[in-house]
Each structure stands twice: as C-alpha cells, then as structure tokens.
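As a warm-up, study this chain.
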Amino acid sequence: MIFNYIRNYFLFNFSTLPPLSLYIHFPWCVQKCPYCDFNSHELKTDLDEKAYIDALINDLDQELPSFWGRSISSIFMGGGTPSLFSPKSIDRLLSELRARLSFTPNIEITMEANPGTIELGKFNEFNGAGINRLSIGIQSFNDDKLKSLGRIHGRKEAIRAAEFAHDAGFNSFNLDLMYGLPNQSLAEAADDIETAIALEPKHLSHYQLTIEPNTFFHHQPPTVPDDDRLWEMQEVCQTRLAKNGYAQYEISAYAKDGYQCQHNLNYWQFGDYLGIGAGAHGKLTNAPEQKIYRSWKVKQPKDFLNNATNEKRISGQKTLSRQEAAFEFMMNALRLNEGFETETFQQHIGLPISVIEKQLKQAEEKELISWELKRIKPTDMGRQYLNTLLELFIPD
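Now compare it with the structure written out below.
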C-alpha cells in the first residue's frame, strides 16, 4: 500500500518527450553588480579559458548517457559574462558540441554579452563561430543609473554594442533593460525604452529591478520608485513598445514577429534542459523510468574545475513529484500572455490536465484565467496578480 502511494507520487505517463535545450554557464564577470544574485564571481586573476572549456566538455561527456538519441533545440550561454571568453574558445566549444550532439535544423544559439567587454571584431568572430543570437546586458542608457547599478559600461558603450551587433550581421539580438532603478523618474524610464527602440533590436527584455537576498542592494537598499510609479513606468513603456511593433509574449519579454526567444520559451513551456558549467541547473525527463529529475552543479568555479570528470561536480539532485511538476509547469507557463495548450501540459508533464482541474476552476472563478477547450491563459487581471494566481497551484 505504502509502496503504491510512493510509486504514484513520483511516476508519470509520458507518450512523448518535451524539447531539449542546453544551458552553458560562464561564472566570471569583470565585477559583481550590487543587484545580481546569479552565480557570478569577480575575475581577480587571468582567465584560463582552455581549462574551463575543457571542464565544460568533460561535464557534458558525463551527461551524455542521460539523453542519448535526443536533439538539442537551442543553446544559451549565460553568466556571468560569456563574452569575456575569446571567439577562439567559443569556436572550440561549439565544435566539440557539434561532434557530440544532434542539433535541430535552424537551432538558436544565444550568447550573453556585456557592452564593456566587446568590440566589432569580436562580434564578427562570435558570429563566424556559430553564435546566431546575442543578448546584450544594457540595463539602462543613463550614465548615472548605470553607475548606481555598478555596470562597467556607459551610454556610449551600450549604444555601440547594439550597432556592432547589426554591423556583425546578427539579425537577431536582445537588449536587456531594467526599470524601477534607484531614483529613476518616469521620463528616464521612457527615454531608455525610446533609445532601445531606435537601435532596432528584434527582441527586448524589460523587467523591474528587484532587491534579492544575498546581494549588496539587499544589505544596503537604494531608494527606488514606489509601487504607483512602478506601475506607471510599466504601462508607459509597454504602450511605447507595442506602438513600435514589439509584442509582449511573456511578463518581461517583447519581440518583433517571429523573434521570440526559443530557449526561454522552452523554459516557460516546461521543456527539458541540460545544464553544464559551474552552478548550472538542469531538468531532464527519463522516459524508461517515467520520472523527472532536477540537478545542479557546484557553484564555485574552482570546485567545478577540479571535479568536472566525476560525480562531485553535481551539488544536488531531486526527483520531482507529480504535484511539484504540475506546479512548476503552471509557474512557468502562466508567465506567457497566450498561456498554453492543454495538450502541451499532458505532453510535457505526462499527466492529464484533470490533475489540476480543481485549481483551474478556482482561478477561472476569480477571473484570473480564461479556460477554453484547448487553451488556458492568464487574463489581464491574472497577469497583474500573477503571484495570487500561482498560489492556487502550490502543492499541499
């Protein structure tokens, strides 16, 4: 009896597997930003690029048996600052990946870049190595705000980075912008959006500065706009983005038609992803066992470098219960303006939509979602009060 309960608690019923992406973490930055809670470490010595690329390849080699026969639909190089690495190292890494992995046609390969670490020649070479999408961490075009955020670039470098992306032949690139910055006015937030639009990226990420635990800002909080001003900033900026052809498809993501970030869409639709590198997280579906596993690698670069060929590179692993998987799916999918098809839930979770029917009815009664025959999506109220909506799906 107890065995059957435990078995039903963890087992799924997958008829197909979700798409599979690859995330590669580069843990070093020139300096740590005061708002950043990512696994990034200030680079205090010369960067041994070869040693880290070797470690990434060794990490991948240990993971290969867990996803034999599956193709990679997108690759995202994040950090930290991947653009600290030379094009030669990135070219070598991608060559090693191609030798080991099956890529889907027209695979999206994204690299995060800091405007303070690039020049035109470097962008040209990244493109030549196979990077076909950039995500440039602008955050603001205001020099005073950039200084308060601890960024190593200024307005000129930010604009130049976007111009370099165009000149290097990147048809698809993203600009990261934040609002609600220390002492930011509505006019300053709107000016950032207008400047970004003028640079003609195909994708814009626009999200509110949040004060995260274990950051400098958490210990010494800056003065930020109040909730009313934040809401006003969001509405004004969203209106200007929409007017210029940037459709909002996720809470903080806006894109020209056909240029949504495929890698992030896979996250938000609860697809699988392999994580390699210091602190990288992964989520993989095991069809023979009918289980979903999460794992994460050791955070400290030195520990990762020393253990990339053995199990000590793994900091932790977890088997998701059916309730946890359903909640995680909803936590991600309800970020999307168009929500999700009920068939996607069944394919990516291995469970019928009926397992959350009670919660869906409660959300519908509260007018937080619209539930049509084949699609569930958040209403305007549901997007505005997303945390309230998600609380309905938290496992007991």
